[in-house]
Amino acid sequence: MAAASFGRIFPIAAVLALSLAGCRRAPGGAGSAAQPTKAAGRRVAAASFVGRQVCETCHAEEARRWKGSHHDLAMQPANEKTVLGNFQNVSFAHFGVTSTFFKRDGRFYARTDGPDGRLQEYPIAYTFGVYPLQQYLIAFPGGRYQALNVCWDARPVKEGGQRWFHLYPKEAVPHGDPLHWTGPFQNWNFMCAECHSTNVKKGYRPEEDRYETTFSEIDVSCEACHGPGSSHSAWGEAVRAGRAKADDADKGLALVLGDAVRASWIFDPQTGMATRSMPRTSRVEIETCGRCHARRSVVAADYAYGKPLADTHRPVFLERGLYRADGQIEDEVYEYESFLQSKMYAGSVSCSDCHNPHDLKVPVSADRVCAACHAPEKFETTAHHFHKNGSKGASCTACHMPTRNYMVVHARHDHSFRVPRPDLTVTIGTPNACNGCHRDRSSAWASEAALKWWGGKRRQEPHYGEAIHAGREVLPGAGEALARLAGDAGKPGIVRGTALTLLGGENGAPLKGLLEGALHDPDPYVRRGAI
Length: 531
Known about the structure:
Low-confidence stretches: 5-45
Structural class: alpha+beta
Largest sheet: 6 strands, antiparallel
Distance between the termini: 34 Å
Helix content: 25-40%
Shape: globular
Number of helices: 23
Radius of gyration: 24 Å
């Protein structure tokens, strides 16, 4: 895990959040003060952060799994144990700027171009992330910390790693550019801190243009997800003393991540797929993960644990430049918005159904995780994937979760779990997993192969990508297609909300009725799209 490296796409929401924060320069030194959350509810409002040392006295197995995870190593003080990069007086050149990494008196330094373009020596304060790359934070006046965009490739040599590289390898990023490492989009306090530490308070002081940023733990620890733990700790003490019941519903937690409904997954022998015995009743877990695993801006400083994510954050729509028209990932958008489009999400799958929430790993290989709900005897067959068993073409993730590289070396899976649609490549130009492997063949070839193998039923069904493409390109009939899509309660909320944003200047009585209904829709994306 490492900080984001956004391309030259500045979403209005992100720019608005930047201007609202007053971050012309963006300040902040890291402290350790714990502040109580302002979540609703008398007990939660009084809760404070206690630290993982308190948590692990009762939750030793969870603490063991967390230790060494990407959350544990999200941010660390720079020292001999934490710094992975080669600081043996090694130089790296990028568009005329030569940066040199070296050690002196036991400290790590980078000599590189500063905010005025001149080479200067900067001590490394913190490491940021651990794999497949590691960034380095440098302290600046006004309490700011800035992330170098010359990074260390932590992958093995055989994978092309163990080298310095620039986040924008094909582009000059001179001083004064917002993407320069001293600029606002590489500022730790504003862009990165919330998702790499626990209980972060940005502490911006606009009248002085500086930060007093604090956190209670330097990394993503227990309370980053579970919320302030003092009430839960007190509940545990009360149980041991016989003053409280062990089966108390919330156990003093700031939020309950698990679903209140005890459900099981039941296989249907006809389809070979498992379905949940009862629908999911809570989105708390998914939205807790989504706080950091989404492309989003912050609209309210006081994050409320367990409250809807949209109360404090604004996740993006399927915007041009961020997502393809059919919802596939394009720019660096993480996982949340993709997952909201998926049949898995609609079928009540949650993040922890596939990922262990403490070590973040999938318990077995990625394809074997799929087999937990998709019977291998039906899906791990040439009759399903039409490839040699054991080949990449037979892999569930290669076809349904293709990867795209971000931050140059970080391959991330698309979490929309979509069926490859090479016919859409032909009609609206969106990518497909087939040609992702068969780069020497045309999309028409892939489309014909898919038609031969799986028949034409799927492509006869309208895909929301067609309406979104029409809306983006302002094609004839786009308004009607978008209105139908926005009004289709069977489609994902993020898709319907995106359709509403594209309706733009459309008007008339039918649209008025659609918008009035959308303003009361249970999905926050639809309500936002209507606005």
